[in-house]
UniProtKB/TrEMBL annotation:
Residues 303-382 form the PUA domain. This is Glutamate 5-kinase. One of its GO terms (biological process) is L-proline biosynthetic process. The gene is proB. It is an enzyme of class 2 (transferase). NCBIfam families: proB. Pathway: Amino-acid biosynthesis; L-proline biosynthesis; L-glutamate 5-semialdehyde from L-glutamate: step 1/2. The lineage of its organism: Bacteria, Bacillati, Actinomycetota, Actinomycetes, Pseudonocardiales. Belongs to the glutamate 5-kinase family.
């Protein structure tokens, strides 16, 4: 069961003292982790006017440097580039159009990188900037190259500072928010924990500013977040994530075997220390191999195969390969070797895999047993080795 607090104080939830949560297995794992990904949002680094708040950035860097000094490798996923570019460009608020967002990111990314480099230099730490687009994760070759880059940076004692490459990313190749990016990076680098820092001190079952929300300190499974109504925008207007994206990122990482801690940036010292603040998410499955994680969570999906109940039982229940006989409908334009979703009769995506046929070949094969097919067609549509069942996580909105 999850643990819930009952503080209903309105206003900034970080100002209300909370009793220390129990030291769960997830918290102990975060506290002991030797490779961590930390994500911090725009609202925790910038002023309401959009400029970088150097004091807050320095305070975060001090905490990270102290953890690194305790033989921990750390990757920092930092928002703030667009927000940091607003004031230099004379923009009063975050722009809505992509072109102006990219212009702000171009200016702000320099300011953000310089601020981190100068701040970490106070601790004799070198930082490396890593800018990613979704293409760098969904394309298998790019994914492996990113793994090698992170591995070498960490081996050299560098703190990689990661952000989405907002300057060039188009709507079609955006991660959408840095929370999801952090979860993907956590698996990509083999992290033992993911820490999400924001302007909210924990997960609540509603908007904590309204005064009637209940604080959740431990999440051990889907049922613990069934009643959560997660918002989609930050209070400051500077970020894009909101609690919904943090919850989705925590679920993504936990389902891949990575414990997660969600906490306030103002509690960073305790989050990166004893891990006795915020909300802890227990792992919800075994750690996936890099290939299976990429396939299940990062690959670009180009089509859908609808399955009958028997095929779903074979693929999910018995971990068998998908054969043409179990397919009812084909959607999308894909080639052999592309990644497709496998969908049950109720429209739920139950698995994802690498398809062995082109979309144009399958309509003539679906629903037919292997003995009815020509010899060259008697192969699995999706082989079991190239197939990943997916857990379905749904938050109430």
């Amino acid at each position: 069961m999850h643990a819930r607090g009952h503080d209903r104080t309105p206003g900034r939830v970080t100002e209300a003292p909370q009793p220390a949560p129990p030291m769960s297995e997830a918290r102990r794992a975060v506290a002991a982790a030797r490779r961590i990904v930390v994500k911090v949002g725009s609202s925790s680094l910038t002023t309401a006017a959009g400029g970088l708040d150097q004091a807050r950035l320095d305070a975060l860097v001090d905490v990270i440097a102290e953890r690194c000094a305790r033989d921990t490798q750390l990757v920092l996923v930092s928002s703030g580039a667009i927000a940091a570019g607003l004031a230099p460009l004379g923009l009063g608020r975050r722009p809505r159009d992509l072109a102006t967002q990219q212009a702000a990111a171009s200016v702000g990314q320099l300011a953000l990188a310089h601020a981190y480099a100068a701040s970490f230099a106070r601790h004799a730490r070198t930082v490396g900037q890593v800018l990613l687009t979704a293409d760098d994760v969904v394309r298998r070759a790019h994914y492996r190259n990113a793994q090698r880059t992170f591995s070498r940076l960490l081996a050299l004692g560098t703190v990689p500072v990661v952000n989405e490459n907002d300057t060039v990313a188009t709507e079609e190749i955006r991660f959408g928010d840095n929370d999801r990016l952090a979860a993907l990076v956590a698996h990509l680098v083999g992290a033992e924990a993911l820490i999400l820092l924001s302007d909210v001190d924990a997960l609540y079952d509603g908007d904590p500013r309204r005064g009637d929300a209940t604080r959740i300190t431990e999440v051990n499974g889907e049922s613990d977040v069934d009643g959560v109504r997660a918002g989609v925008a930050g209070a400051s207007g500077l970020g894009t994530g909101g609690m919904a994206s943090k919850l989705a990122a925590a679920r993504l990482a936990a389902s891949a075997g990575i414990p997660v801690l969600l906490a306030a940036a103002s509690d960073a010292a305790r989050a990166l220390g004893p891990a006795d603040v915020g909300t802890a998410f227990a792992v919800a499955g075994p750690r996936l191999s890099a290939r299976r994680f990429w396939l299940g969570h990062a690959a670009d999906v180009t089509g859908r195969l609808h399955l009958d109940d028997g095929a779903v039982a074979a693929v999910i229940g018995r971990r068998r390969s998908l054969l043409a006989a179990g397919i009812t409908t084909v959607e999308g334009a894909f080639d052999a070797g592309d990644v497709v979703d496998l969908v049950d009769a109720r429209g739920h995506v139950v698995a994802r895999g690498v398809v062995a046929f082109d979309a144009t070949e399958l309509p003539a094969l679906i629903g037919r047993s292997s003995h009815e097919l020509a010899p060259e067609q008697r192969r699995e549509v999706v082989h079991a080795d190239d197939l990943v069942p997916l857990r379905r996580w749904h938050a109430s909105r």
